[in-house]
Each structure stands twice: as C-alpha cells, then as structure tokens.
Specification:
Elements: H1 2-6, E1 14-17, E2 27-29, H2 34-37, E3 39-40, E4 49-52, E5 61-67, E6 82-86, H3 90-96, E7 101-110, E8 119-129, E9 147-155, E10 159-165, H4 170-177, E11 184-185, E12 191-199, E13 208-215, E14 224-230, E15 233-241, E16 249-260, E17 273-284
Parallel strand pairs: 1-2
Antiparallel strand pairs: 1-17, 3-6, 4-5, 5-17, 6-16, 7-13, 7-17, 8-9, 8-16, 9-10, 10-12, 11-12, 13-14, 14-15
Length: about 290
C-alpha cells in the first residue's frame, strides 16, 4: 500500500522517502527532518510542528498543521496552516537540477470532526527559473512564463481538484479547461482542474496518499505533463503543456503549503482544526 500510493510509477532512477514501510532499490530512507529534507522559505507565522505517532502501523513522525478559527491564508490577520518549500536532500536537489521528469508525494490525515467550509489548499509541486519559481501563486501575473505550480485543493464537502498556476498561454488554458469532470479559470489567474475527480472524505481520521508527477516540455514544444494520483489512482492528467520556454526553468521540488482560502473571511476555518502530513517522498524519473 505504501509503495502503490507514494510511488505509482515503476521507472524510478533515484529518490528519497521518510516512509519507513517503502522498500525500493533506488529510494533512500531519511528522517522527517527539515535540514535533511531541504526545507526553506518557511513561514515564520505558521510553524510546522513535528510530532510522533505511536501506532506501529502508522507513520513514525508527522508534521502538524493548525488551522486556527477564522484563519484564511498565510498573510491574513489570523494565521493558519503552514507553508514552506522543499527541495529534498542536497544530493537529490543536485540531480533534480538536471531532471526533466519527477514525482513528489506525501500522506495526510485530517482530524476527527473536520469541517470543510468553502475550501483550502494542500501541498503540491513547483518549478521555474531561479527565484521566479517562488511565489508563482496567489494571483501573480508577472513573469508567469518563468514558473509553474500545481497543488491539491479541497472544496465544500471534500470535493477535490488540482489547482494550477501555469504559464499563461492559450494552449495551456485550452488543455486545462478540457479536464473532466469540471474545470474553471479563476479570477486570480489560477485554474481549477478536474474538480470532483476525487473526494477527500476518506482523509478524515485515515491516512491517504497524494502523488504529483511533472514532466517538463522540450523548449519550443508543448509536450509537458502534470499528473495527480490519489491513493494510487490517477485522477487528474494534463498533457501537451508548455511549462517552460527556456532550459533555465527547472523542477524545484514541493510547495508544501496548506491553509483555508481564498482571501476573504467567508473562506475561514469555522473552528480550530488540525491535519497531519508525513511519508514525504521524491523521485526522479528522467
């Protein structure tokens, strides 16, 4: 189960995982440690506390996100969730700089009694040209040809989707709007892709796995791809994308961010709530 959910592909060249149950000849096991995992640009207002889980069949350690009542996003008056970037161990990040296809995954669990409200964001993947790869989200329009970002998002009642910020080309727009069961272009320049393709109800009181694959396009050719798996099943797949226009644009790793919102109070968490994240995994495919 651990292998299927976190690594739903077979052709892995090298990688890392904090999952103690995952066995793969090309995957190195590491602890859930910020320094080892290459955590950087961490939000000082929303810490990610590391905690131990006692049950022997569950993850040994996990990061905890606390969504305070009334919190909507990292920059709001009431902070909630957490946010940082993750590039993996130094040796992995070095090889990732030359990779054109990679997969990143994690497991998550929502606390008992979870209330969805209108929706919120979950960790995903990011990339781009140098520092332009950071801050690709939140309505940014400038230099969007130099970054890409794809995260999971939940909506009311646990309805889930892939929320993307890709270069603003007509081809990317057309490809995203074709993905079933529903796709929308949002006012903040992000796209809701495959809304309703899966549901996160099963994440309440139980661990579930999300895996993200990104394949860079050849420069000048729209042949990039992004794919999301939920519990080992491919639920959203985008093809024929332009994720970059130069060789300088790279896969950078994970945008490990989660919060309620939205940017207005009606998105806020209705009460203090908690979620846990663990089994962080990254692998280079080519």
């Amino acid at each position: 189960m651990c292998l299927r959910g976190l690594l739903p592909v077979n052709n892995v060249l090298t990688g890392f995982t904090t999952c103690t149950l995952l066995e793969h000849a090309n995957i190195v096991k590491i602890p859930l440690d910020d320094d080892i995992l290459g955590v950087h640009k961490s939000s000082s207002r929303t810490p990610h506390r590391r905690l131990s889980v006692d049950a022997p069949t569950q993850p040994v350690q996990a990061w905890e996100a606390v969504y305070s009542q009334g919190s909507i996003n990292p920059s709001a008056d009431i902070p909630g969730g957490f946010g940082f970037y993750l590039s993996g161990p130094t040796w992995f990040a070095t090889q990732l700089a030359d990779a054109t296809e990679a997969i990143f995954s994690y497991r998550m669990m929502l606390e008992d009694g979870w209330e969805w409200a209108k929706g919120g964001k979950l960790p995903g993947i990011s990339g781009g040209v140098g520092d332009m790869s950071y801050g690709c989200t939140g309505g940014r329009k400038e230099k969007r040809c130099q970054c890409f970002n794809a995260r999971a998002m939940w909506r009311a009642d646990g309805v889930a989707e892939l929320y993307t910020y890709l270069p603003l080309t007509s081809g990317n727009k057309d490809r995203q709007l074709l993905v079933p069961p529903r796709a929308l272009e949002n006012a903040d320049y992000g796209f809701s892709v495959g809304r309703g393709a899966f549901n996160l109800d099963s994440a309440v009181k139980s661990w579930v796995a999300l895996a993200f694959r990104v394949k860079l396009n050849d420069v000048g050719v729209d042949n990039g791809e992004i794919e999301l798996w939920f519990e080992g099943k491919s639920v959203v797949r985008l093809i024929e994308l332009q994720l970059r226009e130069s060789e300088e644009s790279k896969i950078r790793g994970m945008h490990f961010q989660t919060f309620f919102g939205g940017h207005t109070p009606d998105w806020a968490s209705p009460k203090d709530q908690r979620a846990r994240f663990t089994d962080i995994t990254g692998a280079i495919i080519q």
